[in-house]
Write a structure and sequence with these properties.
GMP Synthetase, Chain A, domain 3, alpha/beta, Helicase, Ruva Protein, domain 3, three-stranded mixed beta sheet
């Protein structure tokens, strides 16, 4: 049984895109008996997504390993969470949902996630300090708080202190004013784990930087763990002393990039599940397609939609989403349609429009089709599913594959770039 499990995950890793595997396959567990192969998922939304998008691929992997057909069932774990903790397991000053269990991993954040987990296992060790940087709304605060929760849970005797840099500065000012600097320094310099969020806000604050510099040195010399978040790489921080920026780089510096499509979908599904809402796939796709660079904004759009649906008792559907989220996702008018793109591409490559909508895999057809799909994504506001429907009912994963393939070819193949430039000139000329 254990050998079969190992082979299943090994084969799945080869058969699925890396993002899909890490997000949707790796978290499942397996049970096997003579007549059935049971796949246990963390929650109902997870089960639904697997069932609707990847069940056929999973079946093919299982059949190839078993060398026969066997009944395959998807079920939901009896535990609502993969791991259940009591209320006492959460640090009282941290946002409760910001745990490692609720952090959705993808290629964009996997290194930062791994570094955060490593810090918990070796406080004050090799990765001290740990600095996590990214643009706004990509999960820095979630990760730094997840470290705090996990240390609080694993090492109850350790003193965990979390502060935003702004709160640190305000408390410093108050301590100076009311002559309580001794208490201030005791609080921070006796921490076993100091978490400082958004360090960039001490920019230009000389007294705050001086106090933080001394606090940093005291903790570092005592082998106490320091974790910092920032919106920039240390060297790019403005109006922060060089001696501080230099210390920020003593340990490990990691970044978080905007999440890729699969991770965005997983984040939305997880957020909806947290609020006990069954999020339709077309709405998840609509939000994930149109809000690409800010998780906080994406989650905010979802919460606004869920709240409106609940308060007005209106059904949660794609039309409601497009209406309610128009401020989040402005619809720009375009004079180029998918039909125009298909017509122009077919004329350019001297193939039929029906070929672009067909399943034919000849290179003379598949490359023009992928170019047409790429341009449809670039020049229209249609969702991936809507584009797929315009190309003969292709599913969203095929559309994503086509777009990503052309993006990659643009970096390495000058002929593709030339083709697309020529087609775009034809399109804009006919506008």
């Amino acid at each position: 049984m254990e050998n079969l499990k190992r082979k299943f995950f090994e084969k799945a890793r080869l058969n699925f895109d890396e993002h899909v595997y890490e997000t949707w396959i790796k978290p499942i567990s397996i049970e096997l008996n003579e007549n059935s192969f049971q796949i246990i998922t963390p929650n109902q939304l997870f089960k639904d997504w697997l069932e609707e998008n990847y069940l056929e691929q999973i079946k093919n992997i299982v059949y190839s390993l078993m060398e026969r057909e066997i009944q395959i069932f998807l079920t939901v774990s009896k535990n609502k969470n993969i791991t259940t903790y009591s209320q006492e397991s959460f640090h009282p000053e941290l946002i409760q949902r910001y745990t490692f269990e609720n952090f959705i991993k993808g290629k964009s954040n996997e290194f930062a996630y791994a570094a955060a987990k490593a810090v918990v296992d070796n406080l004050g060790g090799l990765y001290n300090p740990l600095l996590i940087y990214s643009n706004v709304g990509l999960g820095k605060t979630h990760l730094i708080m997840a470290i705090g929760h996990e240390v609080y849970r694993k090492y109850p005797h350790k003193k965990v202190v979390y502060y935003s840099s702004e709160k640190f500065m305000n408390e410093l000012i108050s301590s100076i004013r009311f002559e309580k600097m001794h208490e201030f320094r005791e609080k921070f310099r006796n921490a076993d784990l100091l978490l400082i969020d958004d360090i960039q806000f001490i920019s230009g604050k000389t007294a705050t930087q001086e106090e933080f510099f001394n606090t940093f040195n005291t903790l570092y010399e005592s082998k106490k763990q320091i974790v910092i978040t920032s919106d920039k790489f240390p060297k790019q921080l403005q109006n922060i002393e060089d001696r501080l920026k230099n210390r920020f780089e003593w340990g490990l510096t990691v970044d978080i990039q905007p999440p890729e499509y699969e991770t965005r979908i997983a984040i939305l599904k997880n957020k909806a599940w947290y609020h006990k809402i069954d999020l339709p796939d077309d709405i998840a796709e609509f939000i994930a397609t149109n809000i690409c660079t800010n998780i906080r904004e994406m989650e905010g759009a979802l919460i606004k939609l869920l709240a409106y649906s609940s308060l007005t008792k209106k059904p949660l559907d794609i039309n409601l989403a497009k209406d309610i989220l128009k401020d989040f996702i402005p619809q720009e008018e375009t004079t180029i349609s998918v039909e125009q793109i298909q017509k122009t591409v077919s004329e350019y490559f001297q193939i039929k429009i029906t070929d672009l909508k067909s399943q034919k895999k000849l290179k003379t057809i598949s490359i023009p089709r992928q170019i047409a799909i790429f341009l449809s994504r670039k020049y229209t506001q249609l969702s991936l599913n809507d584009i797929g429907n315009k190309f003969g009912g292709k599913d969203h994963s095929t559309i994503i594959h086509s777009i990503n393939k052309i993006k990659k070819m643009l970096d390495n193949d000058n002929s593709i770039k030339k083709h697309i430039d020529n087609i775009e000139k034809m399109l804009t000329k006919n506008r």
